[in-house]
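Saturday, quiet lab. Running sequence design on the structure tokens for the scaffold JK sent over.
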């Protein structure tokens, strides 16, 4: 039962003490979040993995790319555990390393490899945290960097200080929303469809490009629509609409604000009592905020419940199972990135950490 699982988790945690740190993403279900030592957005959790060098094990309640990142940022003698190995991310899977390398080769033929008169590289690869370690390693090897939804603007500025153009993996929406807010026009942001030669573009379009957008998206955030925002405004004329930047440009434009999961949490915290707030992000976070801030009227833009199905795969039963393994000295479901990948990937992650105040 749920209570038994709760007991087992608490007991294993008590036995492991300081040897263990549990990290939980905001999208995790409450039955899991309540056991986490740190709850945060993907940037905060990457930093938490870096900042606990004394724990023997980091149990990551989130998805695969987050656990990989934690492994790459933590100490070599620490083990990172993902309670359910099937907790992936469909967006991260949309950029595969062979396709990325193929795209790069085609683009180098057009742009050349030499820097311009100001010393700027022809193209800088930028990857959203929501990508495999192999893509992060690709960015590390090619002068590029990682970003999260909380520092995408800072990171794109970093890239434009060093390069004439950017290719952004894998989320077209975060890339487009961020570049647009920086004043880059839509015709300078061609979409790269990896199945097509030149990503489905002409050479001229690519020559004029500032930000090439990889054709990925989040299936959870894709569900939010302008119509839902219009309906919320009709029903509650004073509603404040806050969405995650993984939503489409039309949705971000129609909303009052867009920001990372931690941005959304802080906005709710700072809102005057009695605010009506419609949120466009994963349902577990929205429901938790609604419960934590009963002084507001908080609801999800999509009334058909929209969980991230892979985040949801971290069931408390798996958490109990990996923790009891650790008590017995057995590391179950360890995530360990090979040094040939983690070393260059770490370069791209460290550039992000250095660029982000
Ligand atoms: P953040 O935690 O950076 O807001 O990202 C949301 C997300 O989709 C994680 O997969
Ligand atoms: Fe991936 Fe979207 Fe789930 Fe985030 S919410 S883990 S981007 S599928």
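Result came back. Writing it out in full:
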């Amino acid at each position: 039962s749920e209570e038994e699982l709760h007991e087992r988790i608490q007991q294993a945690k008590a036995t492991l003490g300081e040897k263990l740190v549990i990290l939980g993403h905001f999208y995790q279900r409450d039955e899991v979040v309540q056991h986490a030592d740190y709850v945060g957005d993907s940037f905060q959790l990457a930093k938490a993995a870096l900042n606990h060098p004394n724990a023997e094990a980091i149990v990551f309640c989130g998805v695969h790319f987050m656990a990989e990142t934690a492994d790459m940022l933590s100490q070599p003698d620490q083990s990172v555990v993902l309670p359910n190995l099937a907790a992936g991310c469909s967006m991260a899977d949309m950029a595969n390393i062979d396709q990325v390398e193929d795209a790069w080769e085609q683009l180098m033929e057009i742009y050349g490899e030499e820097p311009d008169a100001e010393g700027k590289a022809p193209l800088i690869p930028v990857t959203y945290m929501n990508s495999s370690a192999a893509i992060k390693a690709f960015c590390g090897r090619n002068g590029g960097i990682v970003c999260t939804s909380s520092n995408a603007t800072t990171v794109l500025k970093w890239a434009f200080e060093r390069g004439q153009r950017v290719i952004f993996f894998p989320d077209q929406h975060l890339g487009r929303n961020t570049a647009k807010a920086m004043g880059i026009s839509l015709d300078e942001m061609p979409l790269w469809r990896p199945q097509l030669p030149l990503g489905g573009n002409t050479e001229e379009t690519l020559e004029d490009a500032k930000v090439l957008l990889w054709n990925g998206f989040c299936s959870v955030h894709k569900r939010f629509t302008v119509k839902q925002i219009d309906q919320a405004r009709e029903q509650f004329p004073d509603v404040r609409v806050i969405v995650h930047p993984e939503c489409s440009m039309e949705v971000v434009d129609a909303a009052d604000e867009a920001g990372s999961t931690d941005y959304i949490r802080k906005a709710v915290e700072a809102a005057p009592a009695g605010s009506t707030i419609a949120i466009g992000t994963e349902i577990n976070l929205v429901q938790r905020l609604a419960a934590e801030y009963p002084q507001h009227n908080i609801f999800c833009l999509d009334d058909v419940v929209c969980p991230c199905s892979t985040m949801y795969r971290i069931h408390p039963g798996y958490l109990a199972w990996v923790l009891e393994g650790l008590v017995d000295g057995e590391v179950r479901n360890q995530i360990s990135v090979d040094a040939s990948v983690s070393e260059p990937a770490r370069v791209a992650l460290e550039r992000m950490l250095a660029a982000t105040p």
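Notes for JK: The radius of gyration is 21 Å. Residues 339-355 form the longest helix (17 residues). Ask whether to fix the surface positions before the next round.
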